[in-house]
Design brief:
Maltose phosphorylase, domain 3, 3 domains, seven-stranded antiparallel beta sheet, ten-stranded antiparallel beta sheet, 639 residues, alpha+beta, globular
Length: 639
């Protein structure tokens, strides 16, 4: 217990040279997230959004996938074996799989026999399109199998990865193995094809690495973990082939293939590919306790968060490569900030938290989730953003669909799988990572523990955590203390508060001040827990002003507003003609109120501006839901 208090919970690694034993060395236990299928979400903020995705977004994805576009038709053509032509783009299979993954999560959140029958129908068509050797890819099967596995940019393994993710999710929800069997046969095909002596391969669009780890965990077959590691180790050795490697505007950096993964130190290239790659590297690093991946991931993460991330948690400022340019190049109106990249930030930061037990990764996850990613989905559930700028002169709006339609199904699967990110545990500890009204039962070594959260977060900072163990047992409960509530909006020095916090965090156990230690961003309460124990966390929900480092020139003499985890923006419908030339005084006085009939119910922030004009701000995720309009996140401050 003394070591546990000293190290908190987790690996105790600095992801570099270690001065103390890792958690894995101290204990056979590892941290893992509590699976979405075990978490029931009752939250007033998220439950309606999940319902909207189930009732609106997923039907939109289904309609686009099998009626308005040829994605499902391609699988039917393969099964018919009549020499028909492939329709659409070579990576379109992936959207079928992501939609299936979203459906799998939805069936857990909102059981629906008709939706399950639709998923089973799709799965039958996918299985019918699988070749005897396990290969599944409609593009090459219809255009010429002699060309398969010849061009790393053609997304064969990217599509395979999304198939594997969908299969694992569907199995977790329904217990049905048909799609899982398809995925394992395809994984076996890939393993038999590539993991041979003197055979090399670099995937153009990463995704299969993290998917193989999921497949390994679902099946217990270690060869899938080894194959994921093999894919990672192929990078940075001049093994790449295909047009993208010779394109002078793209090249190796575009796919993070210029340096071996364990030697990478800075972020570069395509943002979504980078996020999927680093999520897979963190997964493999955790599963194999590989300090090389751990050290590299920490270094690259710091480069992303300290120098290349927007205040919304969005990443990838450049549209030319859908990714990164140079440090601190973070334009507002021209920000690319692909929705899929913010989804990737959620995935990667969850894995980094599991690697290290450091809450700063959940701080970034939360920022990306509530701001950069959630903005990609309209409140109605049927309109989407591909990119997410931080300013608009009024010409930018949401779309019904896209030619490259990765974002709609990606944000759908993220919202439906929210349960994956709320809790984590080992065999003797529980972590509360996100503040979401929910309940679950977590098995520990000495007994199971029912845990329930009740909260009106993010509008209110009060979080009640009820503990109900099956037996009277002692274990450490880790509750995240968000950096934003502790005078650090974002890890690093790029963004800092321009004002002072006047209220403190309050933590009680059964109505009395809780005894706890703080370790790596968590309040750790060690207690012999009994039924009826209640921990209350009260976070200050003041409106805060955030200033950016001078290196981000566009934000000089400007501030961004944040309340709780939410970044705010000003939008034309609330400020009418005042958008042009609008500014804040040096020490504005803020007020906030919940308006249930505005934008689905939001807390609106008001501040007295210059010349007694009031500035009205709404959560960034909610903008552009009233048509195209002017918008700003960063507001000038009058000197």
């Amino acid at each position: 217990m003394r070591n546990l208090m000293k190290c908190g919970f987790g690996f105790c690694v600095l992801l570099g040279l270690l001065s103390e034993p890792t958690f894995a060395q101290q204990s056979s236990s590892k941290i893992s997230s509590v699976n979405f299928s075990k978490v029931n979400i009752t939250d007033n903020f998220w439950a309606p959004k999940i319902k909207t995705v189930s009732e609106v977004t997923i039907p939109v994805c289904i309609d686009q996938t099998e009626v308005k576009t040829p994605r499902i038709r391609n699988f039917e053509k393969v099964a018919r074996k009549q020499g028909e032509k492939h329709e659409g783009i070579y990576y379109d299979d992936s959207d079928v799989y992501k939609a299936l993954e979203a459906i799998a999560y939805s069936l857990k959140n909102h059981p629906d026999s008709k939706l399950e029958a639709k998923a089973d129908d799709w799965i039958n068509k996918i299985a019918a399109a699988q070749l005897p050797d396990g290969y599944v890819n409609t593009y090459y099967t219809l255009t010429g199998l002699d060309q398969r596995w010849t061009d790393m940019e053609k997304h064969e393994d990217y599509c395979a990865g999304h198939l594997m993710e969908a299969a694992v999710a569907y199995y977790n929800t329904t217990g049905k193995k048909k799609l899982l069997d398809v995925a394992t046969r395809f994984a076996d095909h890939i393993d038999n094809t590539f993991r041979l002596k003197n055979r090399n391969w670099v995937t153009g669009h990463q995704e299969i690495e993290l998917a193989l780890v999921k497949l390994y965990k679902a099946t217990g077959k270690e060869k899938y973990l080894d194959l994921a590691d093999w894919f990672l180790q192929q990078r940075g050795h001049d093994h790449g082939k295909g047009a993208i490697w010779t394109n002078p505007h793209m090249g190796k950096k575009y796919c993070q293939d210029d340096v071996p993964v364990k030697e990478q130190k800075q972020i570069e290239g395509h943002a979504v590919r980078a996020m999927y790659l680093y999520t897979g590297a963190a997964d493999v690093g955790a599963a194999k306790n590989d300090l090389g991946y751990m050290k590299s991931m920490k270094t690259v993460w710091e480069d992303v968060v300290y120098r290349n991330m927007y205040i919304t948690g969005g990443i990838g400022s450049s549209g030319s490569n859908e990714g990164f340019s140079v440090d601190y190049d973070l334009p507002n109106e021209n920000a690319y900030c692909e929705t899929c990249a913010s989804v990737g930030m959620v995935l990667w930061n969850e894995r980094m938290n599991l690697l290290t037990n450091d809450a700063k990764y959940i701080d970034v996850l939360e920022r990306s989730l509530y701001n950069g990613a959630l903005a990609g989905l309209s409140l109605s559930g049927d309109r989407f953003f591909y990119g997410n700028p931080l300013a608009s002169k009024g010409g930018y709006g949401r779309s019904e669909w896209f030619g490259t339609a990765c974002c709609p199904s990606n944000i759908a699967r993220l919202v439906e799988s929210l349960g994956n990110y709320i809790y984590a545990s080992s065999d003797n500890s529980i972590l509360v990572n996100l503040f979401v009204g929910s309940n679950t039962t977590i098995p520990l070594k000495k007994g199971s523990v029912k845990i329930k959260q009740e909260t009106n977060y993010p509008w209110d900072g009060l979080v009640n955590v009820s503990i109900d163990p099956s037996v009277h047992i002692s274990f450490p409960l880790h509750i995240r203390i968000p950096g934003w509530a502790n005078n650090q909006p974002v890890p690093g020095s790029t963004y800092q508060y321009a004002d002072k916090l006047s209220k403190n965090i309050n933590l009680t156990l059964n109505g009395k001040p809780a005894k706890y230690t703080v370790k790596d961003g968590y309040a750790v309460i060690i207690n012999k827990w009994k039924k009826g124990d209640v921990v209350k966390l009260n976070l200050p929900m003041e409106v805060r002003q955030i200033a950016a480092i001078d290196s981000i020139k566009e934000n000089n003499n400007k501030v961004a507003l944040q309340r709780g985890p939410l970044v705010y923006c000003i939008e034309q419908p609330d400020n009418l003609s005042k958008m042009q030339g609008l500014s804040l005084p040096k020490n504005p006085i803020f007020s906030s109120s919940f308006q249930k009939d505005l934008l689905g119910g939001v807390v609106v922030v008001k501040a007295e501006g210059v010349k007694n004009e009031f500035v009205t701000a709404v959560p960034y995720y909610s903008w552009a839901n009233r048509g195209k309009s002017e918008m700003q996140v960063w507001l000038p401050v009058k000197k």
